[in-house]
Write a structure and sequence with these properties.
By secondary structure, the protein is α+β, with helices and mostly antiparallel strands. It has three domains: 4-67, Uridine Diphospho-n-acetylenolpyruvylglucosamine Reductase, domain 2, CATH 3.30.43; 72-184, 2-Layer Sandwich (Uridine Diphospho-n-acetylenolpyruvylglucosamine Reductase, domain 3); 242-335, UDP-N-acetylenolpyruvoylglucosamine reductase, C-terminal domain (Uridine Diphospho-n-acetylenolpyruvylglucosamine Reductase, domain 1, Alpha-Beta Complex). Helix content is 24%, strand content 25%. The strands form six sheets. It has a five-stranded antiparallel β-sheet. Helix 4 crosses helix 5 (210-224). The longest helix is centred in the last third of the chain and has 19 residues, at 307-325. It is globular. Bound molecules: flavin-adenine dinucleotide and NADP nicotinamide-adenine-dinucleotide phosphate.
Length: 336
């Protein structure tokens, strides 16, 4: 096992923050992971995927392990469903395309989300009305301390809105090795998000298909979201908060037009991006840290911003949203 020292993480996180890992290794199988964990420099192991949902606020004084477990296989099928297992190191969008090419429905709305398969259950990735949990069957994970392999069902994962047990109670304890998805052989289309419906109409689509939905999602995302290769970012920095109906009603009286969507447990989901914009942050830039001009929910590293500067900006945004709307935003990105 080749364990390297003082490795730059700049190209390994989509914020392109310059930070160094004290120790670094890649693994392409559970056996290689086990070998790396037996090294004398195995303190504070952190599993890294595509680096698209993390912010390094300083150097990482521990062992970063990059997951490169590959493979996409059809492992089981019945009349209605196909079960596809993908290695945690596979690129997420590649798996989406694999399913679309075989007319297996369920994840087309999740097209073009950056990152790898292994991180997809971490925050139950979601977009355009679909969440990972809608197609999740099971995953296999490796306990970094006990050195055991464990199967997690959907229930075990305790998926919530951009949440799972891996982001909370079991944070940092497991390396996800592979994920099995249950795809629909007779796809059902979900075009409930206004922006998606509008784009499909703009495209002149009459006969819906999963590949057309995927194309529409790709069009919207490409026109609206900054490409991390050009502008460092980690997507939405904050989660959309949910409030009670009376709280929403009070906000709507004070701020007519404030978006609100039905959420879990009878709550109303607010659009964090809208509130941030109303606080005047959209397009803000100080030094190289800023807020995207087209979507205020996305914080940007224009070049040489430090993780600390991005983090400080995120705290200022949280404070101002709380002052104006009495709602405290929660960070979605994983901070290290
Ligand atoms: P990383 O950033 O590498 O890791 C994220 C966290 O997961 C870290 O804590 C890491 O330790 C842990 N982790 C990673 N792999 C494993 C593993 N195998 N086992 C255990 N722990 C692991 N997210 C959405 O939900 N919806 C979107 O629509 C969306 N759009 C985005 C758009 C842009 C432009 C960007 C930059 C990001 C977007 N994201 C979105 C966020 C991000 O792409 C997802 O959260 C993605 O799943 C992160 O994958 P990753 O491999 O890059 O994870
Ligand atoms: P948008 O269309 O400008 O909408 C703003 C917010 O309103 C979204 O965050 C979305 O919540 C919510 N929303 C819109 N229509 C809705 C509906 N019909 N029902 C329920 N909620 C609705 O959002 P956007 O920024 O362009 O993003 C589009 C989609 O991609 C969203 O689903 C978003 O989550 C996803 N995305 C996620 C990230 C990330 O890093 N997590 C980055 C980019 C895009 P939800 O976010 O809960 O869906």
């Amino acid at each position: 096992m080749n364990i390297q020292e003082n490795i730059s993480l700049r190209e390994l996180n989509t914020f392109h923050i310059q930070a160094y890992a004290r120790y670094f290794a890649s693994f392409a199988s559970a056996e290689e992971l086990e070998e790396a964990l037996m090294a004398p420099v195995n303190a504070r192991p952190m599993i890294l995927g595509g680096g698209s949902n993390i912010l390094f606020t300083g150097d990482y004084d521990g062992l970063i392990l990059k997951n490169e477990i590959l493979g996409i296989d059809l492992v089981q099928e019945d009349e209605s469903f196909a079960y596809i297992r993908a290695g945690a190191g596979e690129n997420w969008h590649k798996v989406v395309l694999y399913c679309i090419e075989r007319n297996l429905g369920g994840i087309e709305n999740l097209s073009l989300i950056p990152g790898n398969v292994g991180a997809s259950p971490m925050q139950n990735i979601g977009a355009y009305g679909v969440e990972l949990k809608d197609v999740f069957h099971e995953l296999e994970a490796y306990h970094l301390k006990d050195k055991t392999r464990v199967i997690f069902t959907s229930r075990d994962c305790a998926f919530g809105y951009r949440e799972s047990v891996f982001k909370n109670r079991l944070k940092g304890e497991f390396a996800i090795l592979n994920v099995t998805f249950r795809l629909n052989k007779r796809p059902k289309f979900n075009t409930s998000y206004g922006a998606l419906d509008q784009e499909l109409r703009k495209m002149g689509v009459e006969d819906l298909s999963i590949s057309k939905i995927s194309k529409a999602v790709i069009n919207i995302r490409s026109s609206k979201l900054p490409d991390p290769k050009v502008l460092g970012n980690a997507g939405s920095f904050f989660k959309n908060p949910s409030v009670s109906v009376p709280t929403y009603d009070q906000l709507a009286e004070k701020y007519p037009g404030i978006p609100g969507y039905p959420a879990e447990e009878g709550l109303i989901k607010l659009a964090a991006g809208w509130m941030i914009e109303k606080c005047g942050w959209k397009g803000f830039r100080e030094g190289d840290a800023g807020c995207h001009a087209l979507q205020a929910l996305v914080l940007i590293n224009y070049g040489e911003a430090t993780g600390g500067e991005i983090y400080n900006l995120s705290q200022q945004i949280k404070d101002s949203v709380e002052l104006k709307f009495a709602v405290r935003l929660e960070t979605e990105v994983n901070i290290y």
